[in-house]
Fold these 2 entries.
Entry 1:
Amino acid sequence: MLKIIYESISAPGPLGILLVVSALLAISRIIRVLTQAQDKNPHKCHPIDDEIEPLLDFDFRKTDPIKYQPYKTQGHVTMGIQKRVRSDWIRIDRGYLDRIRERLPLIKEKPEFTIGTGEKVDPAIEELYEEVMIRYLPARFPTMFKARGKTVENLATGTTYPLTTAGLTHAEMLAYMGENVEEDFYFMCPDHDNQYRLQGYIACFPGGFLSPARVGESVREIHKPVPGYDRKLGLSVDRYFGRMQPGDFIGRMNWSLQVDGADLFRTDGNNYYPGMDGAFSGEKEDPSLDECYLRVEHQTLTKLPRSGAVIFTVRSYMTPLHQVKAEGDGKALAEAIESMPEGLGHYKMRQYWGNKILPWLMEDVQVNGDDK
């Protein structure tokens, strides 16, 4: 082709110009064909991968959980959102293997609670699998997730998962996600009225949230039991969902007390709903302090480019209240709980455990104390 161009330039008069134009058009067509062929290649590098900063020396066994004290920095019933970057979407730390072991039996034995698929959400499930499992994990954590042929090997667990969605059911895609990351994913899909409704999920660690019962509900309907949400936040959240652009990442934190053990799978019991009076045993009113935990949810929202679904990503952390108090934060936590509006405090079940836990949190730390 280069020879043709050279000879065309050497040709005299209009014939030379015509030959040059013809040659350039031919090159343009070849480039267009090659570009289209690359676009059809499912394993081509995704442009947004450039936004993922690789952790080249990452060792999850030496990585501490993120620092979080939302009761100090975030007001009650506020969006409290902050911009995030794509690189921080998924977090892995030294507790990774323990929490993955906690997730595995939930996925296998309780799929009716942990896995939600459906015609309206299946395209978004496939899209999220491509984003998280194929693009994100090997790029962000190359010391943990290695692409080998048609699979990715998780070097921490010794398991593999497919490097393609071909041949997988949508339930299998969700299961693979749940078996490799600690985050839960809730799929909020737009309907014909541009309302975002829960249509699917991989939810191993719900904090008092029965996912199957909420399918089809809008953001406002899901948060209806939260006192003050509709009045203070409902319209703002709806508008924010509508304005989100693919590639946006925003985060916030939610927190509560869990006073009857450290297990993360909770379909009820952490929040109060009308009609629940008398449903709890004395452990809520007189809990063992050894069984009391601060439960924090690190929540991230992003929008998928093809389906337009908003992905609500939830990473849960549990800290014993003994540790909170030992670190000198007992009084700050107690003051945050006491300052909750009455309705919100009732929703968080303060009326059950408050009389015991709040005075204890306010006490000075006892070095050799025997709090129970």
Entry 2:
Amino acid sequence: MIAQFLRSSKPFHATRLSRVGQSCYSTASSKPSLQHVAQLRKLTEVSISKAREALSQTNNDIQQALEWVKNDLAASGIKKAANVQSRETREGLVSVCILSGGSRGKSALGGGGIRAAMVELNCETDFVGRNTLFGQLAADIAHTAAFITEPTDSSTIIRSCSLDILNDAPLISQNNPSSHSSSTVSSSITELIAKVGEKISLKRAVTVVQNPFSGQPPNIGLRLASYLHGSVGSAPQGRIGSLAVLALQSPELARRLESETFVKDLERLERALARQIAGFDTCSIKSSDGDETALYNQPFMMLGGEGANEPVRMAMENWSKRQGLVQDGEGGIEVLEFAKWSVGDVVG
């Protein structure tokens, strides 16, 4: 009976047992869905293969996958950063963030605070320099610098920002500043190195932080002007950047700043001054010997119209008179300080 049963039964294969075991005891996660992959890529900008790997390793849990990607980028970024450390970074972007542009309307009384930053972020190639992720990181670093800097008792308004402090600061998103980030500026740079495969370095940063004047006449106000040449998209960044601090003085200042027409004319003048600084070989504000590297001695070509052939100083004086800022020979607008950078400048 037993022999007959054995002869009539189908052969028993080990592979069949293997399949049974797999179906009963396998702990392998299900294949990541396209929806999960797309969601993770949107949050992290990693490749499709990396998103699938992260989801597979975390059983399709998005939050755990985010943490996995962060750790993976940090590890691979550190390795890549070490490999590319000796390379030169002559491309990149200058980025400006203005959080508070100064006096306007009723804030003109007693001044009006100004808060801004300008940074230069470098990479190896123009291709990466025009990458959306690179541009967003540059914008976020400028935003972080402007946000974290505290006012100090200094003889200058535009001040150098410590790169050590900035690199250790939590990165504050320009698009979503209220969101909490566990990444620092330095770690965010490392993560981007992992994504683009190039050396990326933060070259320099300056900040402008000035609270409203206290104990000063209420007829003085500060304003900020900026311009970026070679902008990428609509972001406030380019290959050449300028940031200038202006001062307005007039007994009528508060009233004038409540006028939309005046403010539009003022913004047009500010932009022209910032473009003039960026577009010309501008090294200083004033010079008594006619040196055209001094802003006030240059023909104000960026203003256009009647003032295009006038020196900047004269054009500003005439503008102030037309706007009613000058009374009894006092008042007007002045450029107090400026910074002008070009990507790849040699910094001493």
